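User: Hey, quick favor. My workstation is busy. Could you predict this chain's structure for me?
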Amino acid sequence: MAGDEGEKPVAGQGDSPAQAPASGQVLFPPAFSVSEIKNKQRRHFMFLRWKQQQRKEKLAVKKKRKKEREALGDKAPPKPVPKTIENQRVYDETTVDPNDEEVTFDEATDEFAPYFNRRTVPKILITTCDRPRGRSVRFCEQLSTCIPCSHVYYRRGLALKKIIPQCISRNFTDLIIINEDRQVSNGLVLVHLPDGPTAHFKMSSVRLRKEIKRKGKEPTQHQPEVILNNFTTRLGHSIGRMFASLFPHDPHFIGRQVATFHNQRDYIFFRFHRYIFKSEKKVGIQELGPRFTLKLRSLQKGTFDSKFGEYEWIHKRREMDTSRRKFHL
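Assistant: No problem, here it is.
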């Protein structure tokens, strides 16, 4: 029986088999290896017991360090900074320095300069792939409530190269295309008009408002604030400016709405919140939706051109993803 087998000591794990003392604590020998156990049920059972012992030892060390820090008081050494992939990131030579004259000159002459100089007002067209399903249509409608001055257009057999000249003639500043596969939104193309650039993203983890727990009421017509996090490299700086140009200047703070683009390990998380003042010192946030995650695939110069377009950056997995600590945004 599997239950009887779980009480037997482990054989073949050295001269000191696993023993259960009277206190109930399981002691494993230093050379213990769960992978050497042939029986699947036995191996899974011993693995759970080993993990439980590891957690107990870790908790005991944590409590011991806490007592030592309380005993030392102000003389206690500073807490060590835990190692994470973010703080162990490989240094990128293209990291943006705000005081760099070259970066300042590029920002003053790039395609987004008219927006940041307040010479243009954002006007966005949101469309889908040809003949989309209902979920993609609802996602476009909800996305338009997050981006002011945006209009939704439903495509019916019209080529994208024909849409772009019409957008330019009608003074649209940006074009957003939502692609889908098997009724699931899986791609986003962002075209800045009239001179580009064009960014292609892989989209995942799309959640509509009705799929978000504890969501707030429908967004209002107020212009939201925009938060851009961790866009540090030259490429990330361009992508961040591209997202910023979608929203108008001078947000309406009375609306208390915030659109966030958070970059973490080259994944861009979009969230739309409303913050609530609970008291003079406490502030809470309430997600309004929708939410989604983007992964940059390519950045192309000019407007969309799949055949003859010149690319500034293309994500090549086998060449660029050689290290987990290397990020591009």
